[in-house]
Design the sequence.
């Protein structure tokens, strides 16, 4: 089996350049995404590394060996920082620069500089550490559940396994003095990064696209002011959850309406009204909990569907929200504005929960609270 190393290096350099251009194209469309430009920069550095390796015996070893491999290590450091940026974590330059610096220092040792097997072992060890860091950042430190995260994190793991095998083999077999003279091991050492680069580019772009779709989907279902579900998303999800209520489970609907909201806007301005909406949304979300469905279903109207909560528990929660809001003036323009809320509570037991009937009962209870003087919790008749 014969693999021409210079040809493989040319192919790898071209692939790195094409992949970098793909990421740059994605960055141009969505400039705020710093991880994209970091990954593109990593690929550009990898291409530079390949070009320097190709110039072996034409330029000093300081450039074709020392600097070439330092560039490949710095490329991995940039890729690691790109993964950190993808997770909305700060970029760390010191760890990214440490591996290239260690390599350049070790290359001052003649026993390493003049031995291809030892150079392969050192560069494999440093590359392996950085690759593991990329995998760790891509999977363990993830803050979302993107499908393509798993395959993306697997690529550097596979690369680490290859580097380990390559180091062990390099120390056991006879290698040519010059990398460009070829051989199976050296050829495979270039072929493997080509395959890894291709996989990382395709999967990385798929992962970026998946996140963008999730962001757009989230934006389409979220109220821009309060961050809660909007009317359509709440109704769809609440209807689906109500349909899946298990036997002997209760489903309780709470409907909230801020009292005299139009007067608040007229007297204090719409900015004060927005502040009241955001404040109440935060209070409601904290009180109900993240596992329940909460949404803004109208201008000043909010709803929460509680599964596994009976009428009494639902009433207690609604009363706590009412009391907390009444005791917490809305701060706006350096002064506190008193805001109250009326609440309607309705409950049903599964598996025969009729969502439309539940909503209607809670709505009737809410209007009863309004007619009763506001700042009240009213419970629908069972």
Sequence:
């Amino acid at each position: 089996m014969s693999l021409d190393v210079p040809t493989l290096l040319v192919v790898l350099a071209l692939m790195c350049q094409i992949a970098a251009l793909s990421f740059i194209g994605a960055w141009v469309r969505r400039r705020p995404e710093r991880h994209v430009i970091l990954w593109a920069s990593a690929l550009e550095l990898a291409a530079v590394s390949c070009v320097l390796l190709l110039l072996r015996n034409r330029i000093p070893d300081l450039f074709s060996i020392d600097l070439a491999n330092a560039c490949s290590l710095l490329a991995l450091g940039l890729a690691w920082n790109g993964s950190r940026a993808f997770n909305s974590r700060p970029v760390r330059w010191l760890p990214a620069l440490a591996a290239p610096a260690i390599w350049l220092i070790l290359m001052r040792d003649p026993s390493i500089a003049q031995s291809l097997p030892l150079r392969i072992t050192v560069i494999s060890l440093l590359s392996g550490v950085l690759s593991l860091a990329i995998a760790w950042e891509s999977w363990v430190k993830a803050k979302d559940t993107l499908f393509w995260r798993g395959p993306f994190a697997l690529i550097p793991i596979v690369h680490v396994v290859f580097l380990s095998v390559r180091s062990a083999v390099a120390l056991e077999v006879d290698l040519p003095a010059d990398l460009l003279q070829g051989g199976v091991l050296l050829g495979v050492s270039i072929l493997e990064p080509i395959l890894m680069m291709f996989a990382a580019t395709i999967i990385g772009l798929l992962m970026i696209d998946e996140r963008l779709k999730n962001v757009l989907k989230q934006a389409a279902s979220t109220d821009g002011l309060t961050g809660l579900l909007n009317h359509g998303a709440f109704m769809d999800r609440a209807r689906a959850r109500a349909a899946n209520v298990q036997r002997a489970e209760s489903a309780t609907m709470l409907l909230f309406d801020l009292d005299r909201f139009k007067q608040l806007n007229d007297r204090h301005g719409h900015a004060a009204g927005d502040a009241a909406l955001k404040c109440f949304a935060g209070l409601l979300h904290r009180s109900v909990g993240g596992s329940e469905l909460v949404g803004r279903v109208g201008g000043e109207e909010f709803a929460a569907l509680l599964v596994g909560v009976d009428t009494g528990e639902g009433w207690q929660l609604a009363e706590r929200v009412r009391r907390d809001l009444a005791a917490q003036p809305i701060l706006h323009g350096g002064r506190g504005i008193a805001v109250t809320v009326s609440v309607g509570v309705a409950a049903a037991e599964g598996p025969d929960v009729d969502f439309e009937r539940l909503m209607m009962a809670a709505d009737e209870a809410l209007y009863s609270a309004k007619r009763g003087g506001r700042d009240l919790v009213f419970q629908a008749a069972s």
